[in-house]
Design brief:
The structure is a single chain. With 215 residues, the chain is an alpha/beta fold. The protein has a single domain, classed as P-loop containing nucleotide triphosphate hydrolases (Rossmann fold), CATH 3.40.50. It has a 5-stranded parallel β-sheet with strand order 2-6-1-7-8. The chain has a 3-stranded antiparallel β-sheet with strand order 3-4-5, covered by helices on one side. Strand 4 and strand 5 form a beta hairpin. Helix 4 packs parallel to helix 8 and helix 7 packs across helix 8.
Length: 215
């Protein structure tokens, strides 16, 4: 069974997806972490990602490996665990622009589909139901008020160097890029189940999805 969960930054989809996978005893896949790893790779190697040819050339040297063991999802970039390194503002500012590059999305989708073969899995991202797994057994779109989303993102940071208002503006820009990119934009597909998490705790979110799946 494939459960696809899409939604914008800070909507609660990552934590909800992970806990839902644990509750169902399914595998969990955080596709956003994969795009963050690509972003880290390009930034560290000082690649001008505004030119797609530059990105396609270096992707041959990009080796990503993903693991899900004992409830922990890990991302390895060229054999190095970068699960913590990809969670900072430096990555936040560039990940949406890099995620819209056709060559990057093609490579990531290949890995996501390969990882998910013959698995009972919960997958979250921004184009899972619309592009990666359009035939998923369950499709959810999770959203929340932007101020709540910004607060959640700040709480996730290991160190905060920006204010709430700055985070709100950063998320607005990311939403615009994700929703308007030509390749696999963030959108609500037909048949998707919308969940507003503004006034829901993580526990409530997980319970709501679990109840729908097991109805």
């Amino acid at each position: 069974m494939i459960i696809a969960i899409d939604g914008p930054a800070g909507s609660g989809k990552s934590t909800t997806a992970k806990l839902l996978a644990e509750k169902l005893n399914f595998v969990y896949l955080d596709t956003g972490s994969m795009y963050r790893a690509v972003t880290l790779f390009l930034l560290d190697n000082k690649i001008d990602f505004s030119i797609e040819k530059n990105v396609k050339t270096v992707l041959d040297n990009f080796k990503i490996h993903i693991e899900y063991r004992k409830g922990i999802f890990s991302v390895f970039l060229n054999k190095k665990n970068v699960s913590q390194l990809i969670r900072n503002s430096r990555i936040d500012k560039s990940v949406s622009n890099i995620s819209k590059i056709k060559a990057v999305r093609k490579r990531m989708i290949e890995i996501q589909r390969s990882f998910s073969q013959n698995q009972n899995i919960v997958i979250e991202g921004r184009d899972i139901a619309s592009n990666v797994f359009p035939n998923a057994d369950f499709k959810f779109f999770i959203d929340a008020d932007i101020k709540i989303r910004a607060k959640r993102r700040l709480e996730q940071k290991l160190s905060n160097t920006i204010t709430l208002s700055e985070m709100i503006e950063e998320i607005k820009k990311r939403d615009e890029i994700d929703s308007n990119r030509l390749v696999a934009p963030l959108l609500k597909v037909d048949g998707v189940i919308e969940i507003d998490t503004t006034n829901l705790s993580i526990k409530d979110q997980v319970h709501k999805l679990y109840k729908i799946i097991n109805n």
